[in-house]
Amino acid sequence: MLGKHLVKGEKINISKISDYYNKFTIDITNKVNNEISFDIDIFLCMCEVNNRINKKKIIFYNNPENSGENIRFEDFFTDDIENKKVFQIDLNSVEKDIYKLIIGYSVYKNKKNIDKHGTTNITIKFINSTMQAEIFTMDIHENIINNNSGVIGEIYRYKDFWKFNAIEHISKEGLIATIRDLFDVEFY
To answer: Which architecture does CATH list for 4-187?
Structure first.
């Protein structure tokens, strides 16, 4: 079953269209551009109710799961065509002081390629892990030479529900500066 295709600014109530388990897989793939040497690292920042993000709780390849083990990261180097990164999330077990999960990325590129124009496509699939049903997809066409980071979207609590907001924000700044400016959060 194919899910809804989200565009920038669109919101979806993921708790309402999912089962009560609220277990999800976020599958993020990017196409490899063989003319340009680059890597995209995906991050998930857990934002506390007081609008603060603990740097030690950012989930990524060097910190693949949080202490509650309700968010896990896996990095798959599939082939020369695409790279795949996955978050496994159990929203029912996310700590009560966390009200937002911000999904972003950093682009690491070879300085020799700085004069080239390079783009890649980033595809996001949000899948109900229990039912193995796709809830939504997003496609981002990223200029990897002119930008250093981006925010894909945010999963946030609204009353008793979890919602997703498709942000699709790209930036020349680093990821922490981008998130700080976009969400007015403090990192500690």
So the answer is: Sandwich (2.60)
